Amino acid sequence: MNSIAIVGAGLGGLACARVLQLHGLDVTVFEQEPSADARPQGGTLDMHGDTGQVALRTAKLLDEFRALARPEGQQMRALDPRTAEVVIDETPEGDFRPEIDRGQLRGILLDSLAPGTVRWGRAVADVAGARLTFADGASHDFDLVVGADGAWSRVRRALTGVRPGYSGVTFVEFGLDDADRRHPELAARTGQGTMMTKVGGKALVAQRTSSGHIRCYATFYAPEDWAAGLDFADAAAVRAHLLERYAGWHPDVLAYVRDHDGGFTHRPLYVLPVPHAWTTTPGLTLLGDAAHLMPPLGVGANLAMLDGTELATALATAPSVEEAVRAYEAGMLPRSIETAKACASGLHDLLSDDLGSMAA
């Protein structure tokens, strides 16, 4: 085996690279962003015992994960949006799904790789079989190109040509910095994990991170062009729009929107069709969101890392690249299809009026 290229330095691609290097295989990760800290890495993730933690164990990074993980982050609260009353407050025993900041987890994976494994600022302009052409015009051939390049994957475009479609649901993200000191009432209401509340096709989610930051998501059904004419650079206008959209909710719940720090980010939810599958193709495969983009209900990062470590293990043990990819896809595709079906149902549960469904 000559060399493997992974396009995208997200969690799945990095986990794949880590396990390949544990087996002594030649791998390079190409990432279009200029550096590891080019942008914030998002909020908190729950690593599941039967997926994400399995991947971390395979990558021999479980101890590093446990040193930073927050079992208390498994706490789940549900509030009545009209009264702000806590109607569910549960913290599972054990650490089946402890939380960790996405940035911390990515840091663990990056630190585990040999220096120079990730080539930053290397945007892929074209994929033709196992040949990558970069934005600077340079081209290189590999034994295998792995598309770990997310929702709008360029590698997927070469393999299946399928593009994500709008789910009918949108997120508006915002946050509360230094919440324990600056917003103690909201910090107390959130608890140590996740607070959720919903009614009438609208939800509000707040998640605590390790830094005392609370990341919030206003979630609702809306047409794809719902924000036309709304300038997201104008925080006051977006805040006013959300407060009007959530009119009738209790003031203590609306305080998440009213009192937050800084701006808002529009995150419409796109998903791949179910099923999304393909015939094994020499020189190409996909993992993570590139393979099975689905609603963000706590499984995407776990599956991406499991995909990456299973692919790497297959490449290290199978007689040929094609046999390894075939074996990997034979397990990954059915699993992702079933999970995507469950997530599609779960997205609608999230926006139902059943408060009990939030603790499931």
UniProtKB/TrEMBL annotation:
Record-annotated FAD-binding domain positions: 4-169, 284-318
GO biological process: response to antibiotic
Any single GO CC term annotated in Swiss-Prot or TrEMBL for this entry: cytoplasm
InterPro entries reported for this sequence: FAD-bd, FAD/NAD-bd_sf, TetX_monooxygenase
Needed cofactors: FAD
Name of the molecule in the record: Flavin-dependent monooxygenase
Catalysis: reaction(s): a tetracycline + NADPH + O2 + H(+) = an 11a-hydroxytetracycline + NADP(+) + H2O
Binding-site positions, NADPH: R39
Entry's family note: Belongs to the aromatic-ring hydroxylase family. TetX subfamily.
GO molecular function: FAD binding; monooxygenase activity
Main localization of the protein described in the UniProt heading: cytoplasm
Subcellular location: Cytoplasm
Entry annotated with the keyword DNA repair: no
UniProt keyword annotations, A-Z: Cytoplasm, FAD, Flavoprotein, Monooxygenase, NADP, Nucleotide-binding, Oxidoreductase
Function (record text): An FAD-requiring monooxygenase active on some tetracycline antibiotic derivatives, which leads to their inactivation. Hydroxylates carbon 11a of tetracycline and some analogs.
Transmembrane stretches, start-end: none
EC number(s) recorded for this UniProt protein: 1.14.13.-
